[in-house]
Amino acid sequence: MNLAQVLRTAPDAPSAFQSARQRSAELYADILAVAPGGDGRVDIEAVQSRPSILRRTAALLSEALPPGTDRLVCAAPDGIAVTTALALHTGLPFATVTGAGDDARLTGEAHAGEHAVVVVPLVGAAKDAAPGAAPVVRAVLDAGMRVSHVLGVLDTSRGSGDRSVADVLQEQYEVRFHALFPAHSALPTFSAFSTTDQKEVDPR
Fold first, then answer.
1. pLDDT digits (tens, 9 = 90+) for 14-51
2. Is-contact 87 119, C-beta < 8 A?
3. CB burial of residue 148 (10 Å; 0-12, 13-18, 19+)
4. Of 88, 142, 153, 158, which is closest to residue 120 (Cα–Cα)?
5. pLDDT at residue 70 is higher than 70
6. 126: DSSP letter
7. Residues with Cβ < 8 Å from 89, sequence gap 6 or more?
8. Which DSSP state fits 135?
9. What is the pTM of this model?
10. Confidence check: pLDDT of 61 > 50
11. Counting CB atoms within 10 angstroms of each CB, which of 21, 30, 123, 178 has the fewest?
């Protein structure tokens, strides 16, 4: 296969030349580059305002979507940017959940029986993240849809000592949780590509 054929069949140019691990490493480094103060916190609004980060996040999230997904769902306004990017990348429609707690309601087009995936940009410790994700999952289930997965970009619950977000969602809703960058990702995994966060301090 020549270069023209490779580029024609690849979903995007980076995937033609880099493995998923390399693309993940570079994306992770760029996300860390917008973390304030280097104390482990991440400004998710800053992350979601960078077009290059959103494009690559959408490409990697699309690889984690289960077959048969009919619709994406996110909480408004927090998840709209990354979910829009994923919808544009995959062609899947999406709906939003507005309100909090018992007042959470699904808005937009959605149909009973559809297989939905909930998208969240950032989750913290399980005790904090599960209540935040629960109203979204519950609103989708109340609409008669089926939820198979919650997909996250960053899981910042590392070292919390609590049950994982994945455990809580599985126990309460029988929904699987997957994060591109889990709480206990080994940072040395990305060290071979750590020049990115020096080279691209302000990724666009």
1. 555 577 788 889 998 888 887 665 556 677 788 888 99
2. no
3. middle
4. 153
5. yes
6. H
7. 55, 58, 59, 62
8. H
9. 0.75
10. yes
11. 21
